Amino acid sequence: MSAMRTYSVAVVILGGALAVALLSLLPAEHALHVPGYVVALLGKYLCYALLALSVDLVWGYVGILSLGHGAFFAIGGYAMGMYLMRQIGARGVYGNATLPDFMVFLNWQELPWYWGGFNHFGFALLVMALAPGLLAFVFGYLAFRSRVTGVYLSIITQALTYALMLAFFRNDMGFGGNNGLTDFKDFLGFSLQSDATRAGLLVASAALLSLFYVVCRMLVGARFGKVLVAIRDAESRARFLGYRVERYKVAVFVFSAVMAGLAGALYVPQVGIINPGEFAPANSIEAVIWVAVGGRGTLVGAIIGAILVNLGKTIFTGALPELWLFALGGLFILVTLFLPKGVVGLWDRIMARRVPAPPLVAAPVRQPEAGE
Amino acid sequence: MRKFLVTCALVLFAALAANPAAADPVEDILTGFASSKYDDIEKSIDALAASGDAAAPAILDALSAGDLQVSSDKKLYIKGDDGSLKEARSGADATGEIPPGLKAVKVNNRVRRAIDAAMGQLTLLSPDPAKRLSAAASQFHAPDPAQLPAVESAIAKESDPAVKRAFEQARAAIILVKSDAPDADKIAAIGLLAARGDEDAKSLLDAATASGSPAVADAARGALKGIERSLAWWSAAQNVYYGLSLGSVLLLAAIGLAITFGVMGVINMAHGEMVMLGAYTTYVVQQAVMVAAPGLTDYALVLAVPAAFLVSGAAGIAIERSIIRFLYGRPLETLLATFGLSLVLQQAMRSIFGPTNLQVDNPSWMSGSMDLGGLAITYNRFWIILFAVAIFALLTLVLRKTALGLQMRAVTQNRRMAASMGIRTGWVDSLTFGLGSGVAGIAGVALSQIDNVSPNLGQSYIIDSFMVVVFGGVGNLWGTLVGAMSLGVANKLLEPVAGAVLGKIVVLVLLVLFIQRRPRGLFPVKGRAVES
Amino acid sequence: MTEVTDALLYLDGVTVSFDGFKALNTLSFVVAPGEMRAVIGPNGAGKTTMMDVITGKTRPDQGTALFRGSADLTKLDEAEIATLGIGRKFQKPTVFEMHSVTDNLLLALKGDRAPRRVLFARETLSERARIDEILETVRLSAVRRRLAGELSHGQKQWLEIGMLLAQEPELLLVDEPVAGMTDAETADTADLLRRINQTRTVVVVEHDMTFVRALDVKVTVLHEGSVLAEGSLDHVSADPRVVEVYLGR
Ligand SMILES: Nc1ncnc2c1ncn2[C@@H]1O[C@H](COP(=O)(O)OP(=O)(O)OP(=O)(O)O)[C@@H](O)[C@H]1O
Ligand SMILES: [Mg+2]
């Protein structure tokens, strides 16, 4: 894809978000005013889009189908949640200046050591990126070194997020148990209830998404990306050419996890809560389907898919809540059966019929791993 | 000499009991109930209990319920709930006219207390050994020194060895709490309790360690140590039993997967929903039987097994024909499509049956439990273990011995060759998938007995099932068996140490590590087929 | 380790078993530097398994496998062995189907494979020249922009050989390079391998006897996991055991 096109995607995302943000600051009676909940909703979509982008990077380009990316997203979210909890200070129900409400409720006397430092945003930011990255490193190192691939890998990533979900449900983990972290007041000193803060968060999400989109685009366009696709399509060929496949996989997996973690971090202030439900295996699989709907291995597709599906979810759950799961389930089936290249592939096909042009990106349909 | 006297007394007693024509003291006692004084009534109660007469329990029952009536000629009647009248002693329907001056025998709280005590004593002497046993147990659990003579006389009369032992233990318990019992008796009692060696004995002994007499306290401490050791063993054994039962649940849930995933290599994320369908089928069958033949409700489960197999099997075949067939060789896509399917199936059940848990009844032969040494074997778990093993054996046979099994293996080992030998590979695929799904449905029947029947039933087992199959080694039924059992036991042994949730997490983490060490599981199938 | 041999490739007593079945049975196989060797033998003789052992894909149960007399091939993994200078063409042609022909060669070019180096690598002029040169050699210049997946079977075989060349290995292992080729292509391939052999050591596995004859090199006959005969093609064809198990009467 040309640099022009790369940047135009980023510009559309950022420009659109800026426009919506500005409109939301108009007086409420103005015809073009965008209500605050729409801003928060869009911000949420963009965070999901970033999560989808991270999934597409590993699945679309390296063939690692992670069913546990929701875990990285949630960990980033918890790191942000911990910062936001500390920001509440003495304004909680119990008025305790250091302990969050749930700890007071559990009769805890002091802050657990791992909550230390979260009153500084810089430290929290570091954890939002490093904690998912570290988990991905340990997990990826073990898994890729012993050459766990394909569905086996998918299944153990799913088990990973499942185990984390169980762990975070426990009260004595010190992350609020069942209820998670919520009742946040402000972020970097700005009230989370104000329209301006919401608009700011939306723009921040768009900026982060655009930034990562451009970085990913450059990454997959460069020789590094070619190695990744080579690994995806013929792992053993790559090995016999001298590439340490596991190192590439770990590197990309960690990068992708950091991306997902930051997405989760920005998600939390916009929805106002983070709880263990975010670790549910179904969430991770849903992120995969966004990518499939948009078009695997295209990056743009991940963004489009995440926004489309979540828009559908919002509309459906408002109008016909009981039909949503039918629709989502049907989407999984139909897309895999009839749209292996997703919306982007469909678009390419339609365009190709009109003007013969090179495909957007050569997305894989099936790649039997050659062992010999 | 004393023995002789006792024997004489017994003979006499037997003779009396055998000869109804002899003067009947019970009739005399019963006339006491006609008195309007509570004191007299109380005395009559005690005397009636001491007589051990067969009609006594019914009379006392009626008395405490306010149904005992006395006529002006001092004859006793029991009024039934339907207004009928029976003669109290014989239990025969009262004939003729309503006896004159009929009124209820009065009771107050003191009388009630007397009735309760009398009932306890009566059950010690009840002709039904099960009743005597439970009377002994209640004495043991709430030892009352006042009952010592009653218990001792019961011991003397008892002929059933099991009941006798129970009485002796009850006596030991009483002696232990009786403050004025001699040390020697207490130490003997401690010996008896140590032999019993369960949680209850332990708490009694615990109390005895605080005894004023050092000899008794020492003996109690010694006995405690022994009991604790054996209790630890029993509790470990109990956990292993729980583990095996969890393992069989896992086995049931995973064994269908061992076929679809292990043998065919198809990732079916809707496998849990096949299990769920089986559970819902059980519910429907049970409801239908309840309506059509209420007497057979206990056996609805037996009917549900083939029904669930057919329903889930048919669903499986439909899924294979309509979705999976198009995705062979694309495992990741299969995974996604079948996950979507699982969402659809869950929502469908939610729409049809509602989101709440459905009540599936345990048949009577599956409720309750038995004690085996220090083990409590619950019948439902026990049946599930048996059931799982039976299904496993059956499936192994089907794969080994039937034509379908043979063709299945042929197709999975070399599809092209099998096709060229005239095997209709498409049908074999469908049937294999149907078999795996049908077995999942059968698992649903079992799970409906121990878990909530809800649309989410399958979800809670899917990850565990995959873990079992992968742990055991793909393509290997025995691996699945060993995998399921060891995971079940590991889970339950960790539970007391780490807590239920943490135990599960530890097992999951260990599994993930294990898979990374040995990606092909415990019992890997070697060969080219798995490498490509 | 002290140098125990001056052979480039030295296998001794190598045994590989799968579930009790011995795919290689105390195999000994020595290739001198600069040599070209043809390996023949019936299906299932263990030829591919031998290559698996040399390239680190399969670990032998027993035996020694040394490269340049010092590197213990049984201890290294595929990537390390490739970096040492052993290149391998698979029996079933394996190229990166979703990449163009040039990109396939680019990825194969000798160079630092560490992720952080590759991350900032830019294609240099000398790399481009080298790719052009290889494209000429394997006669794929005309299809350089096509996706490798769109090539014909024979072209894929050649592309894979081209990738081997790009790797600049000291030793090339070539498993059935002419399977599925026309007679003319077969002759060309023999020609190509002989040219490659002018600068590198080559081990070729082939069933095609005309091809082996065209190579005109020392032949090793494998049977049931061990060496049955070794020598010139005429020499081994005269061996009655070879005729019995492989060549046929
Ligand atoms: N991973 C494996 N698992 C089980 N058996 C194997 C494996 N790899 C090879 N074999 C067996 O080892 C034997 C030797 O196989 P190999 O591929 O080395 O033969 P070959 O000489 O290359 O035959 P061909 O000429 O057909 O390529 C065969 O019987 C094969 O089935
Ligand atoms: Mg071979």
From TrEMBL, chain C:
One of its GO terms (molecular function) is ATP binding. InterPro entries: AAA+_ATPase, ABC_AA/LPS_Transport, ABC_transporter-like_ATP-bd, ABC_transptr_urea_ATP-bd_UrtD, BCA_ABC_TP_C, P-loop_NTPase. SUPFAM superfamilies: P-loop containing nucleoside triphosphate hydrolases. Keywords: ATP-binding, Nucleotide-binding, Transport. PROSITE patterns: ABC_TRANSPORTER_2 (PS50893). CDD domains: ABC_Mj1267_LivG_branched (cd03219). Residues 9-249 form the ABC transporter domain. Signal peptide: none annotated. This is Urea ABC transporter ATP-binding protein UrtD.
